[in-house]
Design goal:
single chain; alpha/beta; two-stranded antiparallel sheet; 30% helix
């Protein structure tokens, strides 16, 4: 008898805690769906160090281990109040503060000789539309910064450029309420809400291969 088909894998990455904070919502959200079967695929969650270079090494290990069909990186954007799929990664490390290993690259390429930028291959506008339809606050982001999040996002897209049929991208997530409690005025989103947003994101990314045409730009 033929073996039953093995569901494809979706790799979701999140970061370890950073800057003396005991939690990082990107990892809390990612690991909440580890092993989840949704959209016809199985989710595998992997934690990345918040360290230039080492984060990409761990990403490479996860790509080799799981051979995913879809990759979604998550990272914290403290100060944002919405779930924000990123449109573009740029080939620039320019760290305003040191990472968890004290590394602080300035005006360095993520990949020497690589393209100036890569666009996400996730349907970012369709994802935002699906999230809003589910009552979840979301918008397209046009900058992933120049810290470790963008570093991983760019490195991921550089690798996927040589992996036909594998799509990926990055999403910045808000702080959790317990983080906001320690930093008055900081916007936040509950963990359960963020996990729901990730489910919607993954289902949409698996179902939609060609993004919709919709307004997602910003004036500045």
């Amino acid at each position: 008898m033929p073996r039953p088909a093995v569901p494809p894998t979706v790799l979701v990455t999140g970061f370890e805690p950073f800057d003396q904070d005991p939690v990082n919502p990107s990892w809390e959200v990612a690991r909440a769906l580890d092993g989840w079967d949704g959209g016809g695929a199985t989710v595998r969650a992997v934690q990345l160090p918040c360290v230039f270079g080492l984060a990409v090494e761990r990403l490479d290990q996860a790509l080799a281990q799981w051979q995913p069909r879809l990759v979604v990186g998550l990272g914290l954007a403290a100060g944002r109040s919405e779930w924000t799929p990123e449109r573009v990664a740029i080939n620039c490390d320019d760290a305003r503060i040191p990472d968890n290993a004290g590394r602080q690259p300035v005006d360095q390429a993520v990949v020497q000789g690589g393209p100036a930028a890569y666009f996400s291959t996730l349907p970012v506008k369709a994802i935002v539309q699906s999230l809003r339809a589910a009552g979840l606050p979301a918008s397209v982001s046009n900058t992933a910064g120049t810290f470790v999040c963008n570093h991983v996002f760019y490195a991921l897209m550089h690798r996927l450029a040589e992996r036909p049929g594998v799509r990926g991208g990055f999403v910045h997530v808000p702080a959790l309420p317990e983080q906001a409690a320690r930093h008055p005025g900081l916007p936040s989103m509950a963990l359960d809400t963020q996990v729901q947003a990730l489910r919607v994101t993954l289902r949409t990314a698996l179902a939609v291969t060609e993004d919709i045409v919709a307004v997602g730009g910003q004036l500045h």
